[in-house]
Design a protein that fits this description.
325 residues, mainly alpha, MetI-like fold, two-stranded antiparallel sheet, 13 helices, 70% helix, flat
Amino acid sequence: MTVAALAPSAGPAYRRYRRRERLTVLALLAPWLGGLLIFFIYPLIATVYLSFTHYDLLSAPVWIGFSNYVFLFTKDPKVVQAATNTIWLVLILVPARMLFALSVASLLIRLRAGVGLFRTSYFLPSLVPPVAGTIAFVFLFNPATGPVNRFLGALGLPQPLWFNDPALSKPSLVLLGMWMVGDIMVIFLAGLLDVPKEQYEAAALDGVGPTQRFRYVTLPNISPVLMFVGVTGVIAALQYFTEAVVAAATASGQATTGGGTASVLGYPEGSTLTYAQWLYVMGFKNYYLGYASAMAVVMFVVSLGVTIILLRRSGTLLGAEVKAS
């Protein structure tokens, strides 16, 4: 029996068919809907509720209203430092990784020989576990025994303190992020390979130079890739945790995580303290789960707001590029 035969005039038969169709769709979606409800919706609602309570994991939550948010925005001195470091990473680390990955991908698509070797070489560091990779990177940049400073010394150049210098600790984390750039490099590589060659050929016939070809041909075609990498990069930077904690612990010579002692927290001098790290310390070291939930809600709102702004901005820029071309 066809759907046309079960027209609305068929009455009960058509309604039974539509009901059976909806139940089939719901049954197929049930695993995903269940995961969304259990691992996202419920934790989100619980976090919002706990953000208005005093909760220490040992006793029942006590409703305290907006006290956690008042303390967060007016009385917690570490939040300002942690938020400033995190914003610095968002503004510097994310664009640096994107530019470097796009440059490497652009060079790889122009190579005629050894493409597989270079592609593998750039991608392999991203497969290294973050903890192991960070420890190895910090040892490479050790001021006293690291090969990087030994090489600089052999050339008669200054030998910075790198992760032990408050002014260079965050730039050192940027270098670490650029070393592990292979994950987004392959995404850019796929996007560049998908750009129609006919458009490049047409632009070359019209006498368009390399810079203009990149602006009016490459960028509009890879704009969805740029948006995806940008949004995911900003969200990851707002949640930056593992590399900062491990780098601080390794550089200070104390193998501790999650804040550890006061000397390790954000070492050196709080320069590597991130918002996510302070959230973890307050929630799971000091057991202020209500306050940590308030910090998590603020992080979620900021991430959502930045994502919306980037999506709208991307649409505006893409429209302007299309009109200009």
